[in-house]
Amino acid sequence: MDVAVDNKDDELDYSSLPRLVIDPYEYLEKIPGNNGHIRNQFLQAFNELYYHIEYEDVLDEIDHIVTIFHELSLLIDDIEDDSSFRRGWPAAHTKYGVPLTINCGNLMYFVAMKRATSVLPEIYLKHNPRICVAELSASIQKILTNEMINLHHGQGLDIYWRDTPNVIENNLPSLTEYAEMVMNKTGGLFRLSIKLLELFSTSETSQPSKIPLANLLGIIYQIRDDYLNLVDERYNHMKGTSGEDLLEGKASLPILHCLKNSEKSPVYRMLTEYKTSEERAKSDLLKVAIQFMEEETQSLAFTKHLLLEYCDKARNEIVQTTGNKDSMLIQIIHKLSMV
Prior knowledge:
Layout (H helix, E strand, L loop, with lengths): L18 H12 L7 H14 L4 H25 L4 E2 L2 E2 L1 H5 L1 H30 L5 H31 L3 H4 L4 H11 L1 H14 L10 H21 L1 H7 L4 H5 L4 H9 L4 H8 L3 H6 L3 H10 L3 H24 L5 H10 L2
Antiparallel strand pairs: 1-2
């Protein structure tokens, strides 16, 4: 068997990879999202309001890179959460197997990194021939590496709180620790988008960093997700089950609030007496626990109130700094508040 070892293509890209290796990613990519491409909307909205990048090919590539990171993270998330469904369809690992899906997810991390550090600078070079591609690539690599560390830091804490015995009884995270976890996990891709926009901004007006706003939006997005996970029928249909966070034993915001405000509640019993999602699903406690969070500890109302409070905070900050009360970004935040 002859192998052309001296002709290995150093410029291998996503399009030239064997389909069988990236089937899990392409399968997930084709499933319609349930949030109307919200990250692309945020990208466009931030650019419209603050950064004014006029090069559509640069914006499209940033969006593509962030999308790859988002989609591949879902491949891994569904394995870590043992989720059977994603967006109402069978999760990729149930179709292609766990080993191939993990490998595909890891592969796409490097595909996204390569696009960001080689393709994106080359696209920008067409518009600005004076730039130093090597310096720009190094700046992008630093941004991506830091945010991937943050994302995995947050995800690791989320998993630790869920899977480590006796956390609920002895070491329940505080609401502040929850917020910090969310800023790392969910806020990562928001910050990644903002940092790339800042790097390529053509705005003549110097803007204070929008990273605090990106962090706030990450928290808003996660709180909304935590709330809908327990109460929204459409969300439950997309996930294939109701109360998925409770079945998995996650320390979501309403679950944390309930545990901190009631001892030996149905939520506490469900998470301590049953050790697996399957055992919890077979118990008769799910509806009782959700009802308890609604009626006894008002944890669902607390979560919704905090969501609306943070949405108001984000809107006020945008209006105060821009004077624009009807921007695309304001409209998106308004939609997120409608739960």
